TrEMBL record:
Annotated GO CC locations: cytosol
Protein name: C-1-tetrahydrofolate synthase, cytoplasmic
Annotated keywords: ATP-binding, Cytoplasm, Hydrolase, Ligase, Multifunctional enzyme, NADP, Nucleotide-binding, One-carbon metabolism, Oxidoreductase
EC assignment: 1.5.1.5, 3.5.4.9, 6.3.4.3
InterPro entries to which the protein is assigned, alphabetical: Aminoacid_DH-like_N_sf, Formate_THF_ligase, Formate_THF_ligase_CS, NAD(P)-bd_dom_sf, P-loop_NTPase, THF_DH/CycHdrlase, THF_DH/CycHdrlase_cat_dom, THF_DH/CycHdrlase_CS
Length: 933
């Protein structure tokens, strides 16, 4: 042929550059559209072969060019097959890894099955395309998955030649699973007529001469000569071989499986060696990685869940809560977890109806914009409760199941104290409940027990440490605190922390002076300053004051102390306010349990407790996933009391939920009791630490409670005329208006939810609606979720969606730089309506001491009755001109707030004459729990 007819050179180098430019645009778009999303490839290598190292460096360089993070993980030659499989599985389950390749050949001492290894890589991350699943997809014509890299590069080069593959005759020389067989399949599914030739094929030259497209991957240098090739054929040479060549500095030259010089005179297009298929293999590897990552990103950032909704079978009259709960079979919790975008590795199953969610999901979802944040609060409640939890569940059912908005409810875990004492349950009610209801109310996944264990371990350590210090001399005490083990004596990490705080620079236990030994060993706790009590999750009034140390073995070292209920523990507040495990440990370490005889703080870290408590809480830090009656997701986590602590579910649950629902979704959380207690603490404590700002406040009220606040009877069966009811209601709405006033002070739109009851009238609802709008609420909606489930709260959901789109000018109630006394007065006057606040000299001295120790900039947590805006539970409606007495104050350094006790507040509730215990029982024949309501 003349020179004009020399074959077109199909440069893989040039095509790969163009491909990588396109891939860079894709990774840039992923980062832009998905808030900094980064594509991640892991390259696994066993041993350190020089040729493998060259290939790996090329892949890492190319990955950087297209914006892909490439991690080179190298294992020693001594690794076993089991160990390698275990390591690969780690990357399979790591959500930050999108592609995995295992560099072949394995340079190992042990006998490792390479096919087993390649098949161990998850098909979704197998960017080499060598997993049998991906090979099988290609074989059956499913080209939507990850296609083997070299075969895919071959197809791209053929397309580059300009030939129309469909209808051509293609011949493939070689049938390997890596190149030949998948290339043949790809050509077949591109509608070519394909012949595969191999070592047993007779008259290969004749078969080759028929080919419009010839792909050679036979592993023999210059095997195919130009005379074999059909004029004008497209030739793709996949081979790379070395031949001796003394003219080369290296002593060899690289050639393909085709005799390039002669073939290029016959073919219309041909790939060179090197610079042909090789560069395209790397480009296709990166293409697969970006493809896998894009799929993951689209799943993570998808705008709409596909929830399987559980239909309600509404009955009239409405059955008991437990009958309703048992009539609905929950979805398998793993199904729900996947529906809301969680990965299997992030879910720890507790049976098939509840699961812990690992905080690793937060890291995977960190680039997602937060959803809308809705907080539920209420008016001053009656002893019957006004249905905040029920409204929370009804609203999320309406949003998720009926309005098709990604929505998660975040609730506190109920304490068993009230469950067996007064409530009988706290899972919502009617057709707006959390299921499984029994699990929700009893134990759940054991978080409260973990808090109890951690709290009481600290209490035991305090008393035990005082005992040992009192009964041992300095050196003996030091020798026991820092023992010699197997001939080695060293400080533990937490003991090194104490040395650092004391200003002792030695890390060798033998180097301390006698004075330093005494300083290190003796905490010198002043028993009169101990603020750390034991706890239990049971109402027991007789533990409000106890004496410990009465056994003869304690050598008359007795002291008075008490038990609190577990949910009043500072550890519970810490669990609720920690943003991650690191933050949890830091807060635990900062807990102040007492002062020493010189007035200095004694902390959990001084007692060596930080790590031990963190271990007890390592599972409790993970939120629990359950569901509503309609199959919508609920995260249950932490349970601090609202009148004693800050009364809100955990920050980590809210953060996780905000990422899972996405920017167009909703997170609905509840603040305990009314706006004066739970909501105030929610904003001024929880929001400061979480950084999450609500878009809407939902204020729950009932006609029944508002009548009571107006002087009317609380029980609907009391004989009064409709006119008398409306008169009482018209007076009682002042309480609602005060709570609306409290809410609007934060600059967040307020929606009033009227929790409807059978005894209500249309005119009563109108009175409440008019009063609500007059006080500054943007809407007031009657909701029948108790009897109708989510469908009864659709109008409430619509109001919340509308409110969330309103402009907001959020502001805190007080500045953290204000003195503690002024913060307390601001809360009392602005939220409660107090005329003044009463501080005795002891309280003022404590506040001054806290400020001198650096606690003055902490937020304040006021513990007061929930049954009145004042400190007196008997004052209903909107009390005025009252003085709020502050009877005690202490600091929860780990939780991060100063607690003030206003009026009569007990941290250990009691059982009534007839507690709910009488109604709760176990059916021994069915195993069902009876009496929860």
């Amino acid at each position: 042929m003349s020179e004009a007819n020399v074959a077109k050179v199909l440069s893989g180098t040039e095509l790969s550059k163009e491909t990588k430019i396109g891939l860079k645009k894709q990774t840039d778009a992923l980062a832009e559209h998905f808030n900094g999303f980064k594509v991640h490839l892991v390259i696994v290598q066993v041993g350190g072969r020089d040729d493998s190292n060259v290939y790996i460096r090329q892949k890492i360089k190319s990955a950087a060019e297209v914006g892909v993070k490439a991690s080179h993980i190298q294992y020693p030659k001594t690794i076993t097959q089991t160990e390698l499989l275990s390591e690969i599985n780690k990357y399979n389950t790591d959500p930050s890894v999108h592609g995995i390749i295992v560099q072949m050949p394995l340079d190992c001492i042990e006998n490792i099955d390479s096919h087993l290894i390649t098949n161990a890589v998850s098909p979704e991350k197998d960017v080499d395309g060598l997993n049998i699943v991906n090979e099988g997809r290609v074989a059956i014509g499913d080209l939507t998955g990850l296609i083997p890299c070299t075969p895919n590069g071959v197809i791209q080069l053929i397309k580059r030649s300009g030939i129309e593959i469909s209808g051509t005759r293609a011949v493939v020389l070689g049938r390997s699973k890596i190149v030949g067989a998948p290339v043949a399949s790809l050509l077949l599914w591109h509608n070519a007529t394909v012949t595969i030739c191999h070592s047993k094929t007779k008259d290969i030259e004749k078969e080759v001469s028929k080919a419009d497209i010839l792909v050679v991957a036979i592993g023999k240098p210059e095997f195919v000569h130009g005379s074999w090739i059909k004029p004008g054929a497209v030739v793709i040479d996949c081979g790379i071989n070395s031949l001796p060549d003394s003219s080369k500095k290296s002593g060899y030259r690289l050639v393909g499986d085709v005799h390039y010089t002669s073939a290029s005179q016959i073919a219309s297009a041909i790939t060179p060696v090197p610079g042909g298929v090789g560069p395209m293999t790397v480009a296709m590897l990166l293409s697969n990685t970006v493809q896998a990552a894009t799929k993951v990103a689209n799943i993570i950032y998808k705008s709409q869940w596909n929830l399987g909704i559980l239909p309600l079978k509404l009955q009239r009259p409405v059955p008991s809560d437990i009958e309703i709960a048992r009539s609905q079979e929950p979805k398998n919790i793993m199904i729900l977890a996947k529906e809301i975008g969680l990965q299997e590795s992030e879910v720890i199953l507790y049976g098939n109806k509840k699961a812990k969610i690992c905080l690793s999901a937060l890291d995977r979802l960190k680039n997602i914009k937060n959803g809308k944040y809705v907080v539920i609060t209420g008016i001053t409640p009656t002893s019957l409760g006004e249905g905040k939890s029920t409204t929370t569940v009804g609203l999320v059912q309406a949003l998720a199941a009926h309005s098709k908005k990604n929505t998660i409810a975040c609730l506190r875990q109920p304490s068993q104290g009230p469950t067996f004492g007064i409530k009988g349950g706290a899972a919502g009610g009617g057709y707006s409940q959390v299921i499984p209801m029994e699990d929700f109310n009893l134990h759940l996944t054991g978080d409260i027990h973990a808090v109890t264990a951690a709290n009481n371990l600290m209490a035991a350590q305090i008393d035990t440490r005082m005992f040992h210090e009192a009964t041992q001399k300095d050196q003996a005490l030091y020798d026991r605190l820092v023992p010699t083990v197997n001939g080695v004596r060293k400080f533990s990490p937490i003991q090194l922390n104490r040395l650092k705080r004391l200003g002792i620079n030695h890390t060798d236990p033998s180097k301390l002076t006698a004075e330093e030994i005494a300083s290190f060993s003796r905490l010198n706790i002043d028993p009169n300053t101990i603020t750390w009590n034991r706890v239990m999750d049971t109402n027991d009034r007789f533990l409000r004051k106890i004496t410990v140390g009465q056994s003869p073995t304690e050598k008359n070292r007795t002291r008075q102390t008490c038990f609190d209920i577990s949910v009043a523990s500072e550890i519970m507040a810490i669990l609720a306010l920690a943003k991650d495990v690191k933050d949890l440990k830091e807060r635990l370490s900062n807990i102040v349990v007492a002062q020493d005889i010189n007035g200095k703080n004694v902390t959990a870290d001084d007692l060596g407790m930080t790590g031990a408590m963190a271990v007890l809480l390592k599972d409790a830090i993970n939120p629990t996933l359950v569901q509503t009656l309609e199959g919508t997701p609920v995260l249950v986590h932490a349970g601090p009391f609202a009148n004693i602590a800050h009364g809100a579910s955990s920050i980590v649950a809210d953060l996780l939920a905000s990422k899972l629902v996405g920017s167009d979704g909703f997170v609905v959380t509840e603040a305990g009791f009314g706006s004066d207690i739970g909501m105030e603490k929610f904003f001024n404590i929880k929001t400061r630490y979480s950084g999450l700002l609500p878009s809407t406040i939902v204020l729950v009220c009932t006609i029944r409670a508002l009548r009571m606040h107006g002087g009317g009877a609380i029980h609907p069966n009391t004989s009064v005329t409709p006119e008398e009811k409306e008169e009482a209601l018209s007076k009682g709405v002042e309480n609602l208006q005060k709570h609306i006033s409290n809410s609007v002070k934060y600059g967040i739109p307020v929606v009033v939810a009227i929790n409807a009851m059978n005894a209500d009238t249309e005119n009563e609802w109108k009175i409440v609606r008019d009063a609500s709008l007059q006080a500054g609420a943007i809407d007031a909606v009657v909701s029948t979720h108790w009897e109708n489930g989510g469908s009864g709260a659709i109008k409430l959901a619509e109001a919340v969606i509308s409110a969330s789109q309103q402009p907001q000018e959020f502001k805190f109630l007080y500045d953290l730089n204000m003195p503690l006394q002024l913060k307390i007065e601001t809360i009392a006057k602005e939220m409660y309506g107090a005329k003044s606040v009463e501080f005795n000299e002891n309280i003022l001295n404590k506040l001054n001491t806290y400020e001198s120790k650096g606690y003055g900039k902490l937020p304040v947590c006021v513990a007061k009755t929930a049954l009145s805006l004042s400190g007196d539970p008997n004052l209903k409606g909107v009390p005025t001109n009252f003085t709020l007495p502050i009877v005690d104050v202490y600091v929860s350094v780990g939780a991060g707030f100063v607690v003030t006790i206003a009026g009569e507040i007990s941290k250990m509730p009691s059982l009534s004459t007839r507690p709910s215990i009488y109604d709760i029982d176990l059916n021994t024949e069915t195993g069902e729990i009876i009496g929860l309501s």
